[in-house]
Amino acid sequence: MVGILQADIFINKTALITGAASGIGRGLALHAAKLQMNVVLMDLNADGLNETHSLMADCPSMIIQCDVSNLEDFSKAKEKIAIEFGTVHFLFNNAGIFLEGRAWKADQKNWQRIIDVNLMSVIYGLNLFVDEMIACQERCHIINTSSMAGIIVGPALAPYTTTKHAVVGLTRTLHEDLTDNDKVGVSVLCPGLVQTNIIERDHLGLDLDESSIDQHESAKNNAQWLADGVKEGMSPEDLATIVFKKIESNEFWILTHPEFVEVYETYANEITANKNNLD
Questions:
Q1: Which of 16, 105, 140, 190 has its CA 20 to 30 A from that of 130?
Q2: Structural domain boundaries of the chain?
Q3: Domain 14-278 belongs to what topology?
Q4: Residue-wise pLDDT tens digits, 188-237
Q5: What is the rounded distance in angstroms from the CA atom of residue 89 to the CA atom of residue 134?
Q6: Cβ contacts of residue 40 below 8 Å, gap of 6+?
């Protein structure tokens, strides 16, 4: 894709942020408000949305309580946005949940729920907004939140890792599909440890069957490692600063934690080394 740089690409443009009730979504919303964007906050958690809104700088905004894993809900929300702001220029497909466990130990209900939230909500966002972004002939950008778990692999994190790898693949394909479009940029956000509540089981919309979650020691240890790590992780506000800079320079990869990139290099080297076995 041709580099797309221009002044004031954010001011007065509309940003839709899913998962905006807390964490990364909240950080993105606060930053967008400072840039005087029209900010649409979307989540199932109405209290969290109201709290995010109360922390934002004054700007045109709207709150929509919505289950983005439900296409009908998401479609109705789109209609509300169109009435208030028209075209969505910056689409942040950010909603996500966490589920640990070994690949064969997550039950069908939990597999379906994490696929619906982490992957299908992203697909629905693309279904609903990309054609209009292309048609508007204005500077637009799509940002899909994956994770470092979208490019590296560890044990007993199969459901989360599977969905986050899928988001990377989906987003890279989208990038290739839009490679000749000089208006619509595409990025995949792969953060490491960030101060969020993703590990908590009691937030609205999780809808997992607790009795079926893998209780193996490896699953428990990795969940605990993540819980401890996010407490000392990067602030969502600092992450948002990185994200918006990468959007402005139209970069596909938004990687925020170099220590995890080093792990990926080891992973990638396994593939490179294997080519010797093909001769």
A1: 190
A2: 14-278
A3: Rossmann fold (3.40.50)
A4: 999 999 999 887 765 545 677 777 888 888 888 888 888 888 899 999 99
A5: 10
A6: 14, 15, 16, 17, 61, 62, 64, 81, 84, 85, 88
